[in-house]
Design a protein that fits this description.
The chain is of the alpha+beta class. The chain has one domain (about 10-40). About 20% of the residues lie in helices and about 20% in strands. It contains 1 helix and 2 strands. It has one helix spanning about 35-40, and strands spanning about 10, 20. It has a two-stranded antiparallel ribbon. A hairpin with a 6-residue loop joins β1 (about 10) and β2. It is globular, with a radius of gyration of 11 Å.
Length: about 40
């Protein structure tokens, strides 16, 4: 089944921008926006 992804609004732990992620963020792990996430993988 192709159900719409549920988006959760989060604040990037690195730059502070508000963004949406398709997963339930965990309290014990930082969440990053797309730009910071890409930068952290390099």
């Amino acid at each position: 089944p192709n159900r719409p992804r549920e988006l959760h609004e989060v604040v990037c732990a690195n730059c502070g921008v508000t963004t949406q992620v398709p997963f339930q963020p965990r309290e014990d792990r930082p969440v990053y926006c797309r730009d910071c996430f890409q930068a952290s993988k390099k």
